[in-house]
Amino acid sequence: MTVRERREREREDRERRIIDAAREIAEAEGWDAVTTRRLAERIEYSQPVLYSHFKGKDAIMAAVAIDGFAELAAELRAARTEAGLAEVATAYTRFAETRPVLYETMFTSAVDLTFASTETPAPLQAGFGELREALRATNGDEDLDAQTEVFWASLHGLMTLMRGGRLRREDHDRRLALLLQRFSGQARRGSFQPGRGKWQV
Amino acid sequence: MTVRERREREREDRERRIIDAAREIAEAEGWDAVTTRRLAERIEYSQPVLYSHFKGKDAIMAAVAIDGFAELAAELRAARTEAGLAEVATAYTRFAETRPVLYETMFTSAVDLTFASTETPAPLQAGFGELREALRATNGDEDLDAQTEVFWASLHGLMTLMRGGRLRREDHDRRLALLLQRFSGQARRGSFQPGRGKWQV
DNA sequence: TTCAAATCCTAGCGCTGCTAGAAATGGGAG
DNA sequence: CTCCCATTTCTAGCAGCGCTAGGATTTGAA
Question: Rounded to an integer, what distance in angstroms lies between the CA atom of residue B18 and that of residue A156?
Fold first, then answer.
């Protein structure tokens, strides 16, 4: 029995090393540089061993992404408990800026980590939860989930476009300030509606 | 001289066929399905011919992306001239939803189409310009460029997260309505500032 | 000491983007 | 009309990718 346990522990260690190595290489040189051969060499095992841990390269990317969500949630939490919405937004953008590849991985559509599902890994929901609590303080409970989604999407859009070179980096603070203005206090009701039934899926 | 012209015309035709074929396959089966061999077969030339037109596959993707920006700008323009901000936002989301792969291509960081540069292809700026004019009507001229960038980023974030499965599609209209509420009318001044000097690049 | 099961590796498949160098094409000069 | 040379185009192949079948090796238990 104790043998079985030791082996399982070794397996877990090895899995961690795979994830860590993948993340390390990806953050330094991009995911194209993360080849299965290189990963195998790094953990000092042969290629096929990787496939006894993960279904494929995408699964490894997903594992790295989940790590990223956990870290993001932790940093947002720290910013929220000792400060307000502005600091949370700043923490969010700092996360995306200091780990650009990790951040990109978390939202790559290749890695389909479905949200709002019962089997959604906890770290994913945690990050969202932190944003929601930060928003609750200034916006109240009305339509809070949707409000959070919109605020989150706005932050995400800012970071994505900036990383892709579509927005000048030096104007980021001003943009963040404008966004926070929009999201400070209760939303005004009504008047604007999207589309006139044009919207079809 | 007329021979030279004919050849150049044929070259341009062929280039168009490459771009169109790439876009067609990509929209139907994703960019992984767009291989150089398949493109070559489609235009009835050999592989190396592609490289006399484009530096590589990325360059072909960029060409498709530029086409996408031109189309987006045209559709936003139509929505703006005959309606208001809400309709422009709806047109934007409809574009992203009906051509998901094309939209994704336009903002993929692999395709680095730098904005806000003198040699930025015109179609890229056109789309941004349409959003700006739509915002001017309800928001005035104050800080208009930055306001537009934030609004654009918000829309982009919504579409990106929805496409990636992070946001439920059926709540999109409500989110769009909330966003439009936030962006209807003048921004309130001040009070919120991002970060306290924490922000470093 | 032997054996079966779990573990791991060697070798290789089919594919990718891309390119060097040979072959074919076609307009202009004699 | 014929020849030549520049341009265009193709054949063939490189190095690398993700992934896997099947055999070799290790390992704990009998």
Answer: 33
